[in-house]
């Protein structure tokens, strides 16, 4: 297949959204069967909702943990992880909170929107890993504050050091591959512009057009696993 091919690049950034996990069985947010089609984020995914009814917000996130716990990284995740084991330096900049990139073996990961398997005390901000599908203790044993999912909810600010690390990786990359994002949520949706300014080759993988499609040189209109296999182009090691 004519290029681009992953093996031709030295500094790759994979910028991923919910579509990257769709073939693993994790629902997207805005597509058919999307989470926000069924649940109102104003009731389940913002600080006001948490203050109003922490138990309801936890019930919703336990449900999401259950969904994700039943899924595993698809072939696309493994191609991304293996690309990072080669000569090229690979950074994953993800909006996903499901932890599937780390599960697949990717190492350099900027989780822009946090992680479903981590909690943060709403008062003293201490953080804790938590692999349980159902969160038991809801009160911080240190200060008695509420434990909340360590996720960036609507209205929350992103964690500046993570956004800075993502921006730095993108400003230094020669290949920028966007996979499965609708490009409507900011500030994440600003990031492709940094790749354009950096002069990187930009590939958009998405069955559908997005408001950011004009920022890309190459559009691969199909599912993540298949399109990533194309970018790996017969590279046995990446496709193993
Ligand atoms: N392969 C590639 N792309 C896919 C696939 C697939 N198999 N299936 C769906 N897509 C595409 C859809 O066409 C859509 O453009 O993935 C995109 C998913 O878009 P959203 O559901 O809006 O997810 P995302 O862009 O990641 O959402 C951004 O919004 O709700 C907040 O914080 C949440 O991180 C999330 C952010």
UniProtKB/TrEMBL annotation:
GO molecular function, one term: metal ion binding
Domain Deacetylase sirtuin-type: 1-240
EC numbers, comma separated: 2.3.1.286
Gene3D superfamilies: SIR2/SIRT2 'Small Domain, TPP-binding domain
Pfam families the UniProt entry points to: SIR2 (PF02146)
PROSITE patterns in alphabetical order: SIRTUIN
UniProt: Zn(2+) binding residues: 121, 124, 140, 143
Keywords: Metal-binding, NAD, Transferase, Zinc
Positions annotated as active site in the UniProt record: 113 (proton acceptor)
Top enzyme category: transferase
Statement: the UniProt record of this protein carries the keyword Zinc: yes
Name used for this protein in its record: protein acetyllysine N-acetyltransferase
Species whose genome carries this gene: Nannocystis pusilla
Upper classification of the organism: Bacteria, Pseudomonadati, Myxococcota, Polyangia, Nannocystales
